Amino acid sequence: MSNNILAIILAGGAGNRLQPLTKFRAKPSVPFGGKYRIIDFTLTNCLHSGIRKILVLTQYMSHSLHKHLRDGWSIFNPELGEYITPVPAQMRHGDKWYQGTADAIHQNDYLLKRSSAEWTIILSGDHIYRMDYASMLHTHKSHGADVTVACMRVPLEDAKGFGIMTTDNEQRIVEFEEKPEKVKPCKDDPERALASMGIYIFATRVLIEVLDEDSKDESSSHDFGKDILPRLIKSHRVYAHPFGEPEGRVSPDNYWRDVGTIDSYYQANMDLLKSIPPLDLYQDDWPIRSYQTQTPPARAVPGDSGNEGVFINSILSGGTIISGGNVGHSVLFHKVFVDDHAIVENSVLFEGVKVGRNARLNNCIIDKYVEVPDGEVIGHDPEEDAKRFQISDNGIVVIPQGYKFV
Fold first, then answer.
1. What is the phi-psi region of residue 360: left when phi exceeds 0, alpha when psi lies from -120 to 50, beta otherwise?
2. What confidence score (pLDDT) does residue 182 get?
3. In angstroms, rounded to a whole number, what is the distance separating the alpha carbons of residues 109 and 78?
């Protein structure tokens, strides 16, 4: 891809709906899939799309995210004009923290001007998907667009949570409404609506101009979906780019998830365990990069009782040991230990979790380094679990980092 494109990844959100997983970390740095962080998917898309100038705008609980970028993504050469640079909130315009997605970029507009980039692609650091941004830039240039919005079709019942658009026969956006009460379906598909994915390519000069105008509007919430795009479609050439177009280099799977809630996060992890996963981590033409912790191989061994360690349809990361326990349909990050006769089912266990003898876990997410005592039972009695833990709408029990059993 051309050196004339700059990527800005919005990674400062608090992720309140993912609490308690975001109590000590930003949403983009929440672990995912046994060895990754959520932001790795967006960064990998940039890497494979040939984007070598990347700014990551951080704010809330940013330390673990900055550390991950340092340890896993210090891969570009600044002497060649390449970089992945975290940019913490600095209050360069006024005395407030970021007031919205548009304001976050406006507060760093000096970096836009200094980059000399002809185009700017704006991305979220908290979505799980594969996408070739070079294909989207091709759409942008072929239309002579000022702005291009990545979009996908979603069922009408889900559409109220998105920015919904209507396009003409040339894919020019003629209507855009953020989270509408009444959703307008696609003309050729009455069961689905055309939704924004929160991925935008701007002509940089246009972006600087509209952000400056928006910053002066005291009635604006300074958000791309609510304020910027509805205004721009009336005055500029704004086009849609359908997600999953076949001309991209990545093998299309059309999988995109906003893992903004405990249930959506849990389901996205469980998706990886399907016989044919909708997001294939073993895809050779678009491998997902992350920081690689140096650990020995995972293993299953007999426990002290002689009981064999067994795992069925599960993801096990390096350093994990199943010592006479049983693990089924679960995702285990590195250095997890499952002791004799313990049973772990339908669960996600973060780094360093230890599961004691005869413990039984079901439908759980357990954060880093929690030690589950011998004989503990979680995920089998909702009333008892609710006295100690947070339980999601779909019944997923979440044990936070640092939790001490008594």
1. beta
2. 87
3. 20
